[in-house]
Amino acid sequence: MRIAVVSDIHGNLTALEAVIADLQTAGADLVVQGGDLVGGGSRPAEVIDRVRELNWPGVYGNADEMLWMPHRVTEMLQAPHLQRVRDLLLTHTIPATLRAIGEERLAWLRSLPIRWSTGDLTVVHAGPDDAYRSPFANASDDELERAYGSLASRSVVYGHIHQPYVRRLSRFTVANSGSVSLSYDGDPRAAYAVVDGDEVEIRRVQYDIEEEIARLSESDDPFKESNPLP
User: Cβ distance 145 to 189 under 8 Å?
Assistant: First the structure.
């Protein structure tokens, strides 16, 4: 079975629709979403509705979790240089997202698990039991083994770091799916992964970035000036 993993949409419906169109040619039998449906972007409610309409199973991410566990933002962003980010998340992004999505969508997000598995594949947002902590793209094989070796799957795919890669270890394959929105690896296209056994393909999808920039500039998102959309 070919399974697509689509992660880190971050309220960017424009990019999501481009990925959905590309999925028609990817040959996926199933699509799993890897968390962070919200957290930035101009249309968080619409992203949630679209994913639910498509009936994609999946997990919650840290940007979803912060809506019902805002204290974790304070715990994870304690460094002095992160104070502005922390304050904006707590005073603006979280309240604005909650207003945009409403109680019913929030309840749906909260119902998502922290991991999703078949016999051959496990999908998590970051770590197996933590939506914030995950290895970086340059992690050693030993670090990846410690992070995901307890999972009895041929392949493990996670999101969170917005930097896609594929690493084949002795017992299993670890991959990062990349991000639909807000790529951190210098390639502005949307990214997602397609898993077939222990083989993982990273797919890149062009989308109308200017449209999303225009939508974002019209919003009251406090991060829009530093948003990594080009």
Answer: no
Going by their DSSP bridges, the two strands 199-205 and 155-158 should be labelled as: unpaired
Quick one: pLDDT at residue 71? 94
Low-confidence ranges of the chain (pLDDT < 70): 219-230
Query: With 0-12 CB in 10 A as exposed, 13-18 as middle and 19+ as buried, what is 88?
Result: middle
The domain tally of the chain equals 1
**CATH number reported for the structural domain that contains residue 55 in this entry:** 3.60.21.10
Residues in a beta bridge with 33: 6, 58
Q: What are phi and psi of 126, to 5 degrees?
A: -130, -85
Domain with 217, as residue range(s), is 2-226
User: What is the C-alpha separation between 5 and 56, in angstroms, rounded?
Assistant: 10
CA atoms within 13 A of residue 106's CA, in its CB half-sphere: 15
CB 97 within 8 A of CB 136: no
